[in-house]
Design a protein that fits this description.
The chain is of the alpha+beta class and about 160 residues long. It has helices at about 1-25, 30-35, and strands spanning about 50-55, 60-65, 75, 85, 110-115, 120-125, 130-135, 140, 155-159. It has a single domain, classed as Sandwich (Gamma-B Crystallin, domain 1), CATH 2.60.20.10. Helix content is about 20%, strand content about 25%. β3 and β4 form a beta hairpin. The longest helix is centred in the N-terminal third of the chain and has 24 residues, at about 1-25. Keywords: Signal.
Length: about 160
């Protein structure tokens, strides 16, 4: 009887732990793209594998992105939060701000880098993954976007 109660309490404890961890493990991509600490980490230290830059040649302020984004200026994180978030370049350089620090990402990225080992990164001219696009293969960077330089509105991973 004691073994059964002990085993049962272990199972209940494991279930309670898994329930407590589940919400963060299932956080949606929009929420991660807005709230994660990864967005402004050094690009080479971030788990997010797309890096968009304010200037050509991967210069100026940057933003790391981990998940596809339908519209850089209208990101909804879901749940009970009705707020629409605007993606911005990270604010870098306290006394001497980097070019583009704190600026809106939409219509302002000039270059990018895809550090993903498997997927292509597509940056689109229009919201909703439409219009002209620049494509970065796995491990590729573009020093200056040809089709969407300072005219980018969405991004998607593709295989």
């Amino acid at each position: 009887m004691r073994k059964t109660i002990g085993a049962l309490s272990s199972v209940v404890a494991a279930l309670l732990v898994s329930v407590a961890v589940a919400p963060s493990a299932q956080a949606n991509g929009n929420e991660e793209n807005i709230m994660s600490m990864e967005v402004c980490k050094d690009p080479y230290a971030s788990k997010f594998k797309l890096h968009l830059y304010y200037n050509s040649g991967q210069g100026g302020a940057y933003r790391n992105i981990g998940y596809s984004v339908y519209d850089f200026s209208a990101v909804k994180i879901g749940g009970s939060d009705p707020t629409v978030h605007v993606m911005k370049f990270c604010s870098l350089g306290v006394s001497n701000p980097w070019p583009g620090s704190g600026q809106r990402l939409k219509k302002n990225a000039a270059s990018g880098e895809n550090e993903h080992y498997k997927y292509m990164a597509r940056v689109y001219f229009n919201n909703g993954y439409k219009g002209a696009q620049d494509v970065m293969g796995a491990g590729q960077h573009i020093d200056q976007f040809r089709h969407v330089k300072n005219n980018n509105a969405s991004f998607r991973w593709t295989s």
